Amino acid sequence: PTANIGVVGLAVMGSNLARNLASREGNTVAVYNRSPGRTRDLVAEHPEAGFVPSESVADFAASLSRPRTAIIMVQAGAATDAVISQLVEAFEPGDIIVDGGNALFTDTIRREADIRPTGIHFVGTGISGGEEGALNGPSIMPGGTAESYETLGPILESIAARAPEDGAPCVTHIGTDGAGHFVKMVHNGIEYADMQLIAEAYDLLRNVGGYTPAQIADIFAEWNTGELESYLIEITAEVLRHVDPVTGAPFVDVVVDQAGQKGTGTWTVQQALALGTPVSGIAEAVFARGVSSHPEQRSAVGATITSRPQPQVVPDTFVEDVRRALYSSKVVAYAQGFDEILAGGREYGWQLDPGAIAKIWRAGCIIRARFLNLIADAYERQPDLVSLLADDFFAKAVAEGSDAWRRVVATAALSGVPAPAFSASLAYYDSLSVDRLPAALIQGQRDFFGAHTYRRVDLPGVFHTEWSGDRSETKVSD
Ligand code: 6PG
């Protein structure tokens, strides 16, 4: 055996990760792909990597030193199961199989439980950063046993991105079995929210503010020098500045306005519903992609419209208002995402460290942002923080921007420009901050039609009113 680490699945993500591994001191990388042509191409294109190629799983296993460590980078689902069972056949107790795809975390829990009796470690790991990240340094979210992390940790640390603030590698052992894939799933939910919020900001600047895509590119580039500094804001400026070489029109105007998705955002929302964690901003972001992808409904409803609201006359502060609305809505998206992470930890018995998770998202991943330092600080100040919105720093920042946020949401509504994530985020913030919610009325309705009972503000116990009788109240239990 000559290699200390192997990669199975050599599509773009897999081959970039293999090249990243090979570029680090001390690594020799075994590579295997189901169709051997891909393996041969990769080895021929990158002689500098010194890959050890195999054309069978048995040869691949034989090329790895013990404990064998292999990272699978194939499509989530059936393809992943197929590769895992081949590796389990060829590997021995103590070896480590890592699934680096975007697996559903419950699949990871199942696979880990199935494989554990063989003595082989199964580690589901989130890897974020797209193709570029895989090659130059992703953010890595491994689950699995603490024991497997002893071998795997140093290898992952060698290839992970490094936070600009302190050079710390963007990887940490998240928790056992499916914890890594769970946290990667929520990362993607937050990614959806970040992207949708940015898209709404663009839409308002363009269709209410009257700015051109090139001007909005400049606005985003400017925002990227302040508290919104992040990878997604940075690339948004680039996309908006781009001109279509065929027509000379802004690139954003020649792209069909239907957003695709591969499922991780939907999983985040499904899981949040199951956990009872409201992630309304994230959910609106997922739904907005869904709405965009139903052109038949959009054209049918659009055809019924005879006049649209006039864009509102906007104040001089409009651009700054939108920036503040974006920032506050972004705080909500992270507050909701971290709520879901902590709820998942409680449900599945993982000891999740929100501050450590915020830190490994500071570089390498798609949602990397300066802002994540502040989240890490918030959890450091108060490890049992019940909501990011209750943290002193974020509470103050959001309160200071709340007038602007309201003006933007109101302007969007009056102008007929959809801003579902901005509005849902503001409604969430207001719901958490008003004295009383109309949930009391819902309790009354529930008690009326189904004797579902209610609690009183002034007395202990559980009560029911005889709605169809004399409307007297009875105490049902203590
Ligand atoms: C990442 C990304 C990545 C994801 C894409 C596509 O962290 O590198 O989250 O894992 O596959 O962003 O997601 P959608 O196709 O669902 O937009």
Automatic annotation (TrEMBL):
Which residues are involved in binding substrate? 102, 128-130, 187-188, 192, 262, 289, 446, 452
Residues recorded as binding NADP(+), renumbered to this chain, are 9-14, 33-35, 74-76, 102
Catalysed reactions, as listed in the record:
6-phospho-D-gluconate + NADP(+) = D-ribulose 5-phosphate + CO2 + NADPH
Q: Where is the 6-phosphogluconate dehydrogenase C-terminal domain?
A: 180-468
Q: Does the record carry Oxidoreductase as a key word? A: yes
The cross-references to Pfam families, in alphabetical order and at most eight, read: 6PGD (PF00393), NAD_binding_2 (PF03446)
**UniProt keywords, alphabetically:** Gluconate utilization, NADP, Oxidoreductase, Pentose shunt
Q: Name one GO biological process term.
A: D-gluconate metabolic process
Q: What protein family is recorded?
A: Belongs to the 6-phosphogluconate dehydrogenase family.
Q: What is the name listed in the Swiss-Prot or TrEMBL entry for this protein?
A: 6-phosphogluconate dehydrogenase, decarboxylating
Name the species this protein comes from.
Pseudoclavibacter chungangensis
